[in-house]
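[Meeting: bench + compute handoff]

Bench side (C.D.) handed over the final construct sequence. Compute side (W.E.) agreed to return the predicted structure before the next meeting so the bench team could plan truncations. Sequence as handed over:
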Amino acid sequence: MFLRVLSFLIMLVFITSCDLFCPPKDKNTSDLDTIVDFSSVDTFPSFKTCDAIIDKQEKMDCFRTTIHQKVGAELQQHSFAVKDSINEMVYVDVIINSEGIFSLDTIQASVNLKKELPELDSLLKESVENLPKIYPANKRGIPVTTKYRLPIRIQLKE
């Protein structure tokens, strides 16, 4: 009798032991590697002058400063004749593809500015297209296409 009870207990332990030691898998959890945040990048696009910077925020600031300087220098080569003084912001959306090539997406400007400077759109497009090829942004080590909004202040006097 004792041997039967002992065998039953040993068999019971072997049958239920896997369930006791292995926690049940939760079907609602997902692996962290499968969650990708598409609203940010690991490394920002970079001009050659900014490439040596390691800090993410400083690299982004260098990129923005450099692109503003290059577009501003291109626009300052042109002279504009206006009837009224202008002091407005223009928002230029620029796309940088995964090969580091710039293209103009959209330009947001007031109706007054478009009326006073009808050639501004074509000049901005030319300025963006004349930007040099850069190192594209990376997400998980893969070059990705990114979009940036550049605020440009237009100040002209009569």
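W.E. noted at the follow-up: The CA atoms of residues 96 and 102 lie 5 Å apart. C.D. will use this when planning the next construct.
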